[in-house]
Design goal:
Helices cover 66% and strands 0% of the residues. It has 125 residues and is mainly alpha-helical. It has 2 domains: 44 residues; 61 residues, lambda repressor-like DNA-binding domains (434 Repressor (Amino-terminal Domain)), CATH 1.10.260.40. The protein is elongated, with a radius of gyration of 20 Å. The protein starts with 10 loop residues before the first helix and ends with a helix.
Amino acid sequence: MKNDKITYDHETDYKNAMKEILTLMNKGEGNLSENETNKLRQMAIAAEEYEDLHYPLPMPKSISEMVELKRFQLKLTQGALADMLGLGKPKLSQILNGKREPDVSFLKAVYQKLGIDPGFLLDNV
């Protein structure tokens, strides 16, 4: 298969591609040829680009929503995130659940470790 970039311009193309992606995935990773693996990778990237364009996720409206989005993107458990931020697990849980106000150490940690925009943090404290 050539390394030409795959794109989906129409919903029908996207839906057909999703069926083909599922078929390839159902074969199992170890049963795919090199060409099928490359095609699957390219199709998945194209599908993600289509979804980002046509089905964008709403922007977080609170600090806890933004932190949860970053946690999801980094594929971290809440405990692993607490460790990464240098916070206790109970403290992080309380902040994310709205039972405790974010303090300076929390805000500094999410800015430094997660790269959350300081303007967003200040606007939402």
